[in-house]
Amino acid sequence: MDTVTLTMKMQPELYMEAETISPDQFAAKSSEEIGALPVYMGNEHHTLSDFFDISGNPGKTAADTKIVVSGDLTKVKYIGMKMTGGEVEVLGSPDMYVGAWMAGGTIRVKGNVDSFCGMGMTGGELLIDGNAKNYLGAAYRGDWRGMQGGRIVVGGNAGSDLALFMRGGEIIVNGNVDVHVATHAEGGTVVIKGNAKSRVGGQMVKGDIYVLGEIERMMPSYKYIGDEEIQADGISGTYQVWIGDLGERHGKRKGETIYGKIYLKVKDTGKAAESVRAARKIRLSDDQKKQIKDAFAGKEPGVQEVRAFISDTFGIDIKPMQVSRFIDEMRRKE
Amino acid sequence: MTKTISDVICPFCGTLCDDLVVTVSDDGTKLLDVENACAIGAEKFLHSQASDRVTRPRMLQEDGSAVEVSYDEAIEYTAQLLAKAKKPLMYGWSSTSCEAQSVGSEIAEQVGAIIDNTAAVCHGTTLVAVQNVGIPSCTLGEVKNRADRIIFWGCNPAHAHPRHMSRYSIFPRGYFTGKGHKNRKLIVVDPRTTDTSSLADIHLQVEQGADYELLQALRAAVRGQELTGDIIAGVPKAKVYESAELLKSGRFGVIFFGMGVTQSLGKDHNIDAAIMLTKDLNEYTKFSIIAMRGHYNVTGSGQVLGWQFGFPYSVDLSRGFARYNPGETGSIELLKRKEADAIMVLGSDPGAHFPIRCVREIANLPSVCIDPHITPTSEICKLHVPVAFVGVEVGGNCYRMDNVPIDSRKVVEPPEGMMTDEEFLRAVNTRITEIKAA
Fold first, then answer.
1. Min CA distance, B100 vs chain A (Å)?
2. Per the CB < 8 Å rule, is A220 touching B232?
3. Helix, coil or strand: residue B255
4. How far apart are alpha carbons B270 and A66 in whole angstroms?
5. Same domain (yes/no): A44, A122
6. Domain-embedded: residue A198
7. What 8-state DSSP symbol labels residue B49?
8. pTM metric for this prediction
9. Where in the sequence is the domain holding A84, given as residue range(s)?
10. Which of A321, B317, B363, B422 could form a disulfide bond with B380, CB atoms 3.0-4.6 angstroms apart?
């Protein structure tokens, strides 16, 4: 495999769109021709050589071309977009759309990536050593086909809207994820080795989500159907199986309804760590409620006033939102 | 003597009331009284008569003071700013007519700008959801004449759209709704008690930021599925089932939703689920869903951009063809990430509504604000161009929240020598063509 090395020599003033950094574009070109490839900054057209030092030669086809990009890439978008083969190594943290709509080959990013990476990808491998932001492996706006094939591995955390409209392929996140995992999914596998927040598998029709850590809040429209032992590379163990999303339409195969599935790892304590939030929520006893009511009888207390009172008298700290509801409740009863 | 003009369109909120009665002086220069309008709408008309109104463009100086300049100088400054910028942002468009918006689109295409409207911080997420799953909708007339199940989800029309409930949704007696509010059932979903929720038959006090869970639970309940947990998103399970049954039992239902769901956690996913709930309910009865749009012509801006470029907001024309991806091409993201290098604001007030770091960025950039009022935006922009009030001093086409186009009317003369925003934009467009040709 022949290698072309791009080193950033000048940081663009605004964000740069460089979908030409792809083995498919570089293959069988001389380094002058590569340097003349267009990149875009706002409404201006520039060439790759304006911003990058280019060395080495590409292979005859995309499959035998490797590109190494280095420098401060935080203002470069669309690296490896729509590539079908070969390899791209990014020694830095590029901006949005890395490996968007890619169909083959490998992209390895040593740093972090921004949002919309691996969007609508159909094949190949996208390996991110750092963190990824939102919409990883998602669908483009209005498209019902998100990630359809290939593999994405994130070393760190991923943001929200992971695997939106996923239809195939595999995403592995080694860290935690934000809200909305595999929303509207109709296939594919998502593995989260850390914790998930909420809305995991919302509106999911089909597909599998494995969560090895905790889910802060399970969707109310999922149903627990039992435990299952799973033997697979890196994720072996006992899992609680939840089916859903029960609010969504579901197809049938051989007379059996096919649901999306969430596999939630059972901890050594024998219990899956479900709904941490519910456990954390502090509730006031009727007696305590009466005490507060008496203390503020005939007054119009502020939220912080009541909160301070609760903290002083009972030694518990309650969220302002809960206090505000409680005040509303008191008023209604009066 | 005075003249009375009836059936005037109110250019304030998306309800676009069309029954105002305005009294003007005989020579048509003074607006004296407004009837039938809500307090906000009346104020909008009367504000055009303010004695301290700015009538000429003002250029912000180094020391923070403003110096009056002529319209010609303002046109030259705006044209140069837009023609020279690499990635200008043209934001606003919600408080102006469709005619002005279409000239704005022409300018954007000519200079390769990003053109965005206030949906970016408002109902943009609705438009994203509509693209994903479609929308079963209807007009407000149908609501008035047929609806007997109303949901207000995350909105408070009693304060934000004051005449909405009396004209369309709760109180009016329509063709098939002769008993008015007596045979309408109202569900309000709001974490707080509001003046709207005080009218509700069922008030679902959803936990803040858990609308999506409640919507999906309702969908499952409508399908007769068993729900997990006794309290769902802050609402007792029995109440969720009760609401589902109430919705299914109606003849015609409508979901109205506002900023409480479009801009809380989940954004477009909340609307996505709400639209799917509407779709599900159509298996049992007739159901529709309507967005409670804020500005009187934000819907029109979406329409104009839609027919020009195919996308309703956040349209990026910098590469000569239209692209769209809120999250990248939205105004907030552009300003936050410092992607734009110039900004023009028309008919909106980002200075009062954007996050502070975006407002700081507006203050740092070369900027023009075209607005009849003095606003926080006009005070930080390099140039403030006052224009005539659309719907008061100049007519123009507007779209109501249910996508019905209504022509607004001129009722009073603007102060002498003042330009309308359409005239100003046309002059800027002509000047940009000259600059580009040179």
1. 24
2. yes
3. strand
4. 43
5. no
6. yes
7. T
8. 0.88
9. 1-90
10. B363
Neighbours of A224 (CB within 10 A): 16
Question: Which chain B residues contact residue A184 at CB under 8 A?
Answer: 132, 272
Q: Which residue of A has its CA nearest to B228?
A: A220
SS3 content of chain A, % helix, strand, coil (to 5): 15, 30, 50
What is chain A's pLDDT, residue by residue, as a tens digit (334 residues)? 899 999 999 999 999 999 999 999 999 999 999 999 999 999 999 999 999 999 999 999 999 999 999 999 999 999 999 999 999 999 999 999 999 999 999 999 999 999 999 999 999 999 999 999 999 999 999 899 999 999 999 999 999 999 999 999 999 999 999 999 999 999 999 999 999 999 999 999 999 999 999 998 899 999 999 999 988 888 889 999 999 899 898 999 898 999 999 999 987 665 555 444 545 567 788 888 888 888 888 777 878 788 888 888 887 777 777 888 888 887 776 6
Do A55 and A199 belong to one domain? Answer: no
Domain that holds residue B309: 58-121+296-437
What is the rounded distance in angstroms from the CA atom of residue B227 to the CA atom of residue A247? 10
DSSP H or E stretch at residue B173: none
A13 CB neighbours in chain B (<8 A) are: 86, 341
Domain assignment present for A248: yes
Q: CA of B393 to nearest chain A CA: how many angstroms apart? A: 36
Beta strand pairing status for A44-47 and A106-109?
unpaired
Mutate which of B213, B313, B315, B333 to test chain A, going by most A C-beta atoms within 10 A?
B213
Is residue A298 classed exposed, middle or buried when 0-12, 13-18 and 19+ CB atoms within 10 A define those classes? exposed
User: Does residue B147 share a domain with residue B115?
Assistant: no
- Does residue B118 contact residue B345 with C-beta atoms inside 8 Å? no
Tell me how far the alpha carbon of residue B272 is from its chain's centroid: 19
Report the relative pairing of strands A38-41 and A44-47 from DSSP bridges. antiparallel
How far apart CA B388 and CA B101 sit, in angstroms, is 15
Q: Chain A within 8 Å of B230 (Cβ-Cβ)?
A: no
ipTM value: 0.89
**Alpha helices (H) in chain A, listed in sequence order:** 23-26, 31-35, 48-51, 276-280, 286-295, 303-314, 320-333
Nearest to B346 by CA among B123, B122, B114, B101: B101
Q: Is residue A104 part of a domain?
A: no
Output b/e per residue, A105-134; b: 16+ Cβ within 10 A.
bbbbbeebbbbbbbbbbbbbbbbbbebbbb
